[in-house]
């Protein structure tokens, strides 16, 4: 592996392809070891504390027990999500888990943009409560980790281990791209990891309470997100 440190500015398309080629037969733990070797404390995990998040938190704790993890706290999450974060903090006390909040409270947002912005303009709502906070987080980081898996949706089918993230002018590392839904759950059960109780109530993918529904009859794992609207991603992943 090259020993030159990567950054968004030095990661040319050729370099990015070469790095992914070097990593192509590695597993998620190897990718994490490589990423923390490259970026050290400049690497931050933006965790949503879904099922993939539980796996990635556990793998990260094996590589970097005091890793920095950020949760984008929109203030609109389910109580079950806040509960699982508490359990993760208790299980991994060395991890630095931060709650990153939007600059506007729910009331301020309603006063400025009108009530129920998640219905009238969900893209703006996500921009205010997720994208802008993540921009602020990534200004102080070189690269970020995400639990994206290729099988999750057509928009994620071509995700690489190492991705040029033009939206945030960063490098996005996705160690779980090859994991299947069953792999995720086998790992959670094998290591008795905490997980969001909503997964047992038909929610495969869990975001804000206003925009997440259970999925019936084995629909695709993200079918319950922004159900009934054109929206399929919050804008963090493009
Ligand atoms: S997921 Fe829904 S409630 Fe959450 S920030 Fe986006 S639009 Fe707003």
From TrEMBL:
GO CC field: cytoplasm
Known pathway: Sulfur metabolism; hydrogen sulfide biosynthesis; sulfite from sulfate
Residues bound to [4Fe-4S] cluster: 125-126, 208, 211
Co-factor(s): [4Fe-4S] cluster
Location of this chain's protein in the cell: Cytoplasm
Active site: 234
E.C. number: 1.8.4.10
Iron as UniProt keyword: yes
Sorted UniProt keywords: Cytoplasm, Iron, Iron-sulfur, Metal-binding, Oxidoreductase
Role of this protein: Catalyzes the formation of sulfite from adenosine 5'-phosphosulfate (APS) using thioredoxin as an electron donor.
Record-given protein name: Adenosine 5'-phosphosulfate reductase
